[in-house]
Amino acid sequence: MKMIGVIGGMSRVSSAEYYKLMNEMVEERPGGLHSAKILMYSIEFAEFTDIPRRFRKVQSSFDWKPLRNTMIDSAERLKRGGAYFIIRCSNTLHSSADDIEKKVKIPVLHIAGATGEKIRERALKIVGLPGTEYTMEEDFYRKRLEEKFGIKVIILVCTEIPLLVKQKDVEIPLFDMMTIHAEAAVKYALGDE
Q1: Do 92 and 23 touch, CB atoms closer than 8 A?
Q2: Could you tell me which Pfam families the record lists for this protein (predicted)?
Q3: How far is it, in rounded angstroms, from Cα 136 to Cα 132?
Q4: pLDDT band at residue 124 under the 50/70/90 scheme
Q5: CA atoms of 77 and 28, how far apart (whole Å)
Q6: Dist CA 39 CA 56 (whole Å)
Q7: What is the C-alpha end-to-end distance of the chain, expressed in Å?
Q8: Model confidence over 98-109: pLDDT tens digits?
Q9: How far apart are CA 104 and CA 80, in angstroms?
Q10: Which site among 67, 114, 118, 168 is 20 to 30 Å from 101 CA-CA?
């Protein structure tokens, strides 16, 4: 099994959920006790904004360059620690996926790519995905879905929403991006991609 490098910390909730999901998925393998090989680097997201937590609107309150530099540094640390590839426990943090791949020379398993595969399996061409203001305004998620999968996006994503809204709660198809991404990471780590 390849080591999964995880950049967490933007939300402890999604970071913990990713860890749990990946280990549960690996644990299902037959033949004994199994755990995912995970190396996590948790960034202190509050260092990048001075807005009180409950009022935080990160996307409009600070310069993203220091955060991008920290994520590149985090990826370098994970690579030195033996990570074979990187995932991020936040949709918003995927805005720098290309920067990490170019500068650190390590694959980044993008959440939009994993989600796009699942959407394509359902043969959907237009999707609505609720999310943070920054993620909806920037094109890093939408552009990847449109260019790689031909999927038109009308609203974008938030990793924690699937913790609140389940398929049983609504009649339209839901795509749990966090679970989809965690599953893609486990498949990649196991060589099943």
Answers
A1: no
A2: Asp_Glu_race
A3: 6
A4: confident
A5: 29
A6: 28
A7: 12
A8: 888 899 999 999
A9: 10
A10: 118
Q: Are strands 38-42 and 85-88 parallel, antiparallel or unpaired?
A: unpaired
Q: What is the mean pLDDT of residues 125-147?
A: 73
Q: Where are the alpha helices (DSSP H) in 42-166?
A: 65-80, 97-104, 111-121, 133-137, 140-149, 161-164
Over residues 17-28, the mean pLDDT reads 94
Angle (CA) 120 86 125, round 5°: 15
* Amino acid occupying residue 118: K
Give the type of residue at 104: V
Cβ-proximal residues to 97 (8 Å cutoff; 6+ apart), any chain: 88, 108, 110, 140
Strand segments, DSSP code E, in the chain are 4-8, 38-42, 85-88, 126-128, 152-155
How far is residue 129 from each of residues 2, 22, 82, 158, 161, measured CA to CA in Å? Answer: 31, 23, 34, 8, 10
Domains and CATH numbers, the chain: 4-190 (3.40.50.1860)
